[in-house]
């Protein structure tokens, strides 16, 4: 490891970057993989490495470095600093014992993801990275196969999304679409039933739905739900039974319940 004691050391500049500095919006939307993302904590770093992501540089605790540093130190520069210095470097209230910057991996197209899957979550305008991270962790844990996002939904590799997903976002397949309506038509043609989540009274009780061989669960923004053109394409709309005094659930919580009810017969 390379010991540093100056938080302004120019070699540490990557760790001072914000989300936009790590990757621009066009880079985050590029399926070929462009820009960087940061993994915070040894668990997330290990999962990024296991997922095949390419590390660039790391910053570790100089006093109690995690074991994975022994491997990182053989392939990339690993800087080490004490807790106070790491707080100053990252401007973060929590001084993780390990941070690593990785190259953003390429994404597979929606058609390829759909062809190798049977259970997909489709997110429209879910712009909170905490919700996206939670949706990924829930879907992965319940045996679902992937996530399809529109262009307005949050980045699964954003700091908060990665933290909330406990690093599963690096391995859980996701695709982006620039035309959600066209993508849903393609999913229907591929044999997917489209289940739209909604709190509306007219929707079917989700507990009464059959198990579909191929299903795409449609989740919209917490404020306005799915847009009209997307909702109109649903095979069925489904609601989670709730007490009358509560109008809706958090998007991630609702997705977790729906993923459990509609989970694959044999989890992945």
Describe this protein's structure.
By secondary structure, the chain is an alpha/beta fold. 30% of the residues lie in helices and 20% in strands. It has eleven helices and twelve strands. The strands form two sheets. It has a seven-stranded parallel β-sheet, with helices on both faces. Strands 1-4-3-5-2 form a five-stranded mixed β-sheet. 41% of the residues are buried.
Brief rundown of the structure:
This protein is of the alpha/beta class and 268 residues long.
Task: Please specify the SSE layout and strand pairing.
Layout: E1 2-3, H1 19-22, H2 25-28, E2 36-40, H3 42-50, E3 55-61, H4 69-72, E4 78-81, H5 83-90, E5 98-103, H6 110-115, E6 119-123, H7 129-141, E7 146-150, H8 159-164, E8 174-177, H9 180-189, E9 193-197, E10 204-205, E11 215-219, H10 228-232, E12 236-239, H11 251-261
Parallel strand pairs: 1-4, 3-4, 6-7, 6-11, 7-8, 9-11, 9-12, 10-12
Antiparallel strand pairs: 2-5, 3-5
Helix pairs in contact: 7-11
Structural class given helices, strands, pairing? alpha/beta
Number of helices: 11
Following the backbone from N to C, one meets helices and strands in this order, namely EHHEHEHEHEHEHEHEHEEEHEH
Give the second-level CATH assignment, the architecture of the largest domain: 3-Layer(aba) Sandwich
Task: List low-pLDDT spans.
Answer: none
Helix percent reads 25-40%
- Please report the distance between the alpha carbons of the first and last residues: 39 Å
The backbone outline, from C-alpha atoms, is elongated
- State the name of the first-level CATH class of the largest domain: Alpha Beta
Quickly count the domains.
Answer: 2
Strand order of the largest sheet: 8-7-6-11-9-12-10
CATH topology of the largest domain: Alpha/beta knot
What oligomeric state best describes the polypeptide chains here? single chain
The CATH homologous superfamily of the largest domain is called: SPOUT methyltransferase, trefoil knot domain
Radius of gyration: 20 Å
The average pLDDT value, as a whole number, equals 94
């Amino acid at each position: 490891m390379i010991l540093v004691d100056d938080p302004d050391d120019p070699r540490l500049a990557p760790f001072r970057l914000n989300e936009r500095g790590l990757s621009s919006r066009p880079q985050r939307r590029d399926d070929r993989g462009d820009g960087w993302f940061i993994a915070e904590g040894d668990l997330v770093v290990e999962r990024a490495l296991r997922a095949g992501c390419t590390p660039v540089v790391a910053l570790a605790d100089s006093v109690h470095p995690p074991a994975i540093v022994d491997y990182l130190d053989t392939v990339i520069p690993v800087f080490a600093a004490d807790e106070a210095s790491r707080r100053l470097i990252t401007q973060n209230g929590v001084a993780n014992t390990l941070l690593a910057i990785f190259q953003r991996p390429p994404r597979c197209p929606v058609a390829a993801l759909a062809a190798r899957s049977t259970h997909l979550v489709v997110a429209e305008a879910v712009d909170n990275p905490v919700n996206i991270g939670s949706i990924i962790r829930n879907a992965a844990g319940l045996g679902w196969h992937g996530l399809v996002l529109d262009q307005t939904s949050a980045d699964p590799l954003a700091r908060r999304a990665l933290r909330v997903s406990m690093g599963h976002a690096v391995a859980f397949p996701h695709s982006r679409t620039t035309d959600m309506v066209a993508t849903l038509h393609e999913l229907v043609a591929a044999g997917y039933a489209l289940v739209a989540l909604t709190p509306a009274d007219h929707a079917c009780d989700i507990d009464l739905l059959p198990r579909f061989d191929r299903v795409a669960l449609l989740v919209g923004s917490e404020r306005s739900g799915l847009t009209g053109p997307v909702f109109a394409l649903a095979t069925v709309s489904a609601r989670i039974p709730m007490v009358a005094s509560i109008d809706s659930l958090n998007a991630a919580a609702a997705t977790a319940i729906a993923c459990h009810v509609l989970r694959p017969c044999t989890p992945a």
